[in-house]
């Protein structure tokens, strides 16, 4: 493949929350800045910019990733999910988001997008997580408001609701 | 906190990556998962002229067995090794140590070989390689060579890798019968850099202990099956030999103390696994 020069912007095409997008990126552009400034997807927050805080966590091909430790050019051809892609419809929260709301698992909300993304990936991988495992996953994020306890409670409740929904034979969507 | 400008090459083959390294030498850096390199780029501690991305290179993504060795090529992510079926019996030290490596989110992206290349003195992968007497398989356009882990790591983020070489794979010896393995770590927060990490391997007649986070690279010592105060004395001598670092997180004295106490606990746990 041709070498992408530092001095120019290059077309990077990928799927963002199910829709094809193209962004113009210098090789050094971080995925966080491509999402926020290039595509206006400002739900992904930028905290520390060196991978410590977890606020910018997104899914790349279904696996969690720090967007600040990812180059925009590395997104070429990938499927990216951000916080904007979690809710099933306008004015409806996902099961996990609704559990966060019920448990007051956010206050200022700065870290919330990243935590929701991580838990979304983890609950898909591990539908019956232990509290210890949930704590380890949330341990990859910094939250300075909640003290984490309500986040863990929301994660546990969401896991239980998602299990019920997948076991339920009823065709109705889970109403939370 | 934005990287300085660089060119970017998504290598389609190993030959293409090696040619780029041969041409650009120290000006080029390999990027795989990027979980160690991107922070260095963002903080401008590294300013390469060219990044060579090897994640598109075929054949680097699968862990394989070669006799008694678990061979992990350059494209294997840390999470993939941790999720390898049967890892806890194939090599219990890796199964115990990998959950301590960064966070769930960084393991999903960071590679095993990338962690070896980065050579952070407190990192778990270099520690396990040194503890198990594993190998680093280097390749350049000129040649292939294999180094023992203890010879590869030469200092704080310094290795014997030449500018035109990349790590094609690392190889961990699989568990041997009659050998116990254990891992312990102390960090400020799970997933943070280790203040001290200990990896022990206990055989019928020998004890091996490797320690990370104390000296400028992981170090291993071997003793006969000491116990009681003889083991304390050996660990105390080891702790002093390591010329412990001092930083914001821990004094040199605390690090030496952890070599004595955490080291002993790790050896005892490995001994129980053997029993």
TrEMBL record, chain A:
Domain 2Fe-2S ferredoxin-type: 10-86
Keywords of this entry: 2Fe-2S, Iron, Iron-sulfur, Metal-binding, Oxidoreductase
GO MF assignments: 2 iron, 2 sulfur cluster binding; metal ion binding; oxidoreductase activity
Pfam families: Fer2, Fer2_2
InterPro entries per the UniProt record, alphabetical: 2Fe-2S-bd, 2Fe-2S-bd_dom_sf, 2Fe-2S_ferredoxin-like_sf, 2Fe-2S_ferredoxin-type, 2Fe2S_fd_BS, Beta-grasp_dom_sf, Diverse_Oxidoreductases
Name of the protein this chain belongs to: 2-furoyl-CoA dehydrogenase 2Fe-2S iron sulfur subunit
UniProtKB/TrEMBL annotation, chain B:
KW Protein biosynthesis (keyword) present: no
InterPro entries the UniProt entry points to: CO_DH_flav_C, CO_DH_flav_C_dom_sf, Diverse_Substr_Oxidored, FAD-bd_PCMH, FAD-bd_PCMH-like_sf, FAD-bd_PCMH_sub1, FAD-bd_PCMH_sub2, Mopterin_DH_FAD-bd
SMART domains: CO_deh_flav_C
Transmembrane region(s): none
Molecular functions (GO terms): FAD binding; oxidoreductase activity
Annotated keywords: FAD, Flavoprotein, Oxidoreductase
Species assigned in the record: Bosea lupini
Keyword Amino-acid biosynthesis recorded: no
Residues annotated as domain FAD-binding PCMH-type: 1-177
Protein name: 2-furoyl-CoA dehydrogenase FAD binding subunit
SUPFAM superfamilies named among the record's database cross-references: CO dehydrogenase flavoprotein C-terminal domain-like, FAD-binding/transporter-associated domain-like
